[in-house]
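Task card 7
Instruction: Convert sequence to structure tokens.
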Amino acid sequence: MWMIIRPIEVITKAFGYIGAWIVAPLMCAMVYEVFARKFFDAPTFWAYEISYMLMGASFMFGIAYTLQMRRHIRVDFLYDNVSPRVQALIDLVGFAGLVIPCTILLVFVDNGLIHYVQYAYENNELSGESAWNPVVWPFRVTFVIGMLLLLIQAVAEVLKCIMVLMGQEVPAPEAMD
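Output:
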């Protein structure tokens, strides 16, 4: 199963790095906006839109990485007081019964995220949020990428749960340096 899990986790971690690095241009844009507005009385047309798009992309690319690092919210006071096999069973039910089906529905069902991107691309949809008014389909692509990453990472987590239930040891994830 590691032959399936390892490539998934490499991809997840790579997008986690990308999501982390997206914060750098976001900070630069925000600092520029503050200086332009406060010191030169020249607010930008693009700062608001670039900030929500970069923050959204960072968030979407980090969702699967957060799952991989086991940092999503859970009821720890209950979860931490049961055996690893019971934890694996709880996770298996959650991932296979909830996360994977909901993610599939969110991405692929009619009027799901893929349709959301396709509509924006075909209609050259603009943001309508500022004078800059960029096309939105590239930003919406990050929604699809993020949810697909979450889907494949959830599959990896299901496989890890199965390994634990079969009595195999699954090492703790290694965080970014």
